[in-house]
Amino acid sequence: MKLLDILQEIDDSPKDVYLVHERFERHYDMHTHKRDQLSFVEGGVAYVTIENEYLVVPAMHFLWIPAGVPHKLDVSHHATQLHSFYFKSSGKAFYKDLGIYPANRLIIELINFSQRWSHQFVDYQEPYAATLFSLYDVLSLMAEQQIKLQLPTSEHPKIEQVLQYIHQNFHTPLTLSEMTEQFYMSERSFCRLFKKELHISFIQYLKTYRIIQSISLLQKQKDSSIEEIANATGYESLAAFSNVFYEYMGMRPSQMRKIIT
Question: What InterPro entries does the annotation carry (predicted)?
Answer without folding.
Answer: AraC-bd, Homeodomain-like_sf, HTH_AraC, RmlC-like_jellyroll, RmlC_Cupin_sf
